[in-house]
Amino acid sequence: MKFVLFALLIVMTFAEKRSQTTSFFSKAILDFVFPKDPGLIKVRKMNQAERMNTAKVLDFIGLVERHHYPAEEHSVTTEDGYNLIIHRIPRSPLSDNQKKKEIIFLLHGILASSESWVLYGPNKDLAFLLADQGYDVWVGNMRGNNYCRSHTNMTIYDPKFWQYSFHEVGTKDLPAMFDYIFNYTKQKDLYYIGHSMGCTSILTLLSSKPEYNTKIKMAILLAPAAFWMNVSPSFNDFINILPFVKEVLREREIYDFFPQSLATVTTARTLCNDKAVTQVICIAILFLIVGSDPPQLNITTLPDILSYVPAGSSVQAFEHYYQNVLAKDFRHYDFGIAENYRRYKQKTPPSYDVKKISAPINIFYSENDMIVTEKNILELDKRLPNVVTKKVPYKLFNHVDFLWAIEVKTLLYDNVLELLQKFDFKQNKSKH
């Protein structure tokens, strides 16, 4: 529903110069959608009454521990001063195996957080399924989301805090998190699973810092956003308003895009629940952006999902994607001619050289993904030197079904688990 409020803001902004009243209302909407203070309390335990009627939500550890799985929280600081939180599910209650385990690292997409991997629980969410299979599951968070809003010498009110995109996530956040995990576990490599921008980020890292290829046993990319040879009409409409939206926000010194807040949670619980006549609007907006798949959407869980996503990102992260859509390429951020010459020694930003990626890559994509289309996936497949690409065998599967489809385990996760098991078996066989 934040998209509805944001659309209303845009309409009001057009008329702002004509009416002081309209200006007042647009400011009120901005303050609601982009609050300076999120006003949300994260807790480890909460009863059903609190879940629906208070300003509280469970944090990652609360979401995991309510199912009697252990969970941990770790802190790491990047080379440029961002304080990040990494979460961990070290084992499953279904197994008491304490031996050294293979590490799997999960990274969410744009506007999400580590919580997006654990909203439904055991036998449904990939993080729990991996823990049940005996993996040591680490779940990352990108700078700027609800867990990573602090810095060694800046605050979130400093515009410079928000000057980042998937490039910084890939080249600074991921190395900091990986190096911490390797040091903590005394291991030297890991499996990587990313969704959407989580895929863009690992592709950025492996092409920019090729030495990390040897530290990735295998990367599994779910709906990877990289090349933009083709854009769906609905996503194109969304992309085309971005420059105007950026200008509206810049004038009001807003650089934080859709933070998780009390406004998000209240809107989701009020307008998107099963009893609300407005629930159909929530569903329509979601499907317009990601692709329509009514059979796989559990509408009862909409308030929960929309209470955790969006979880915040930077306007610049969206702008970087916008630039790549216009360029029909996968390239560095365009700072303008003068700054490009200073940074890149050329007029336009260079493309990421994905041919440098030697780590084994497995891609899963879907036909009905309105954000990452099949043509874009095939372009990435064509350029990667060590890749296997598979389409999810269900025509309506959309961009968020990779996380929350009712039958995601059968349609996707069972294949992911089988892929990991086969790779493990092959690796172990080659050692003997």
UniProtKB/TrEMBL annotation:
Gene Ontology biological process terms in this record: lipid catabolic process
Highest taxon listed in the record's lineage: Eukaryota
Signal peptide range in chain numbering: 1-15
A GO molecular function held by the record: hydrolase activity, acting on ester bonds
One Pfam family in the UniProt entry: Abhydrolase_1
Residue stretches making up the AB hydrolase-1 domain: 104-394
Keyword Transferase: no
Membership in a protein family: Belongs to the AB hydrolase superfamily. Lipase family.
Full protein name: Lipase
Species of the source: Cardiocondyla obscurior
Taxonomic classification: Eukaryota, Metazoa, Ecdysozoa, Arthropoda, Hexapoda
